[in-house]
């Protein structure tokens, strides 16, 4: 039996955090353990996007599921629940849940390993000059003429850049092609087309 089948059997085919049955995938809580099965949980796409900080936190969603998932007997589910509760610690219900939650020393050390508990719950997303969230594949329009470094190319105001790619670790930058040349563009100089 492969890992996903074992996890589905353990989770009864549901997200181990919110119990949704739609679009379930494996999420590794990490950082390390003896086996993948011990550090992996099944989650729905909504939980996955928010765990990975690719979507803003939906406080109602977590308020409905974390007070239940935190009592799981699976350490990886406990760790994921504890981390999400800490990201939401400014909510009274999350603080109350954290006060009630018990993790043994080893599991608590694992939960703290990524340092997520010391950061605010807000998620940094790629946003255009108007605050619209950008995604890979979007089309944007330049709101300022830009000189391209290392080139004689000038990207003019109003230039349309199709099929952008988000720069992974910098929410202020995207990549796009202008006149066949891939360049890095600051998000503050673009407007999402159609937004």
From TrEMBL:
Residues 6-52 form the PhnA protein N-terminal proteobacterial domain. Coiled coil: none annotated. It comes from the Bacteria. Gene3D superfamilies: SH3 Domains. SUPFAM superfamilies: Prokaryotic SH3-related domain (SSF82057). It holds the Pfam family YjdM. This is PhnA protein. It comes from Flavihumibacter solisilvae. The lineage of its organism: Bacteria, Pseudomonadati, Bacteroidota, Chitinophagia, Chitinophagales.
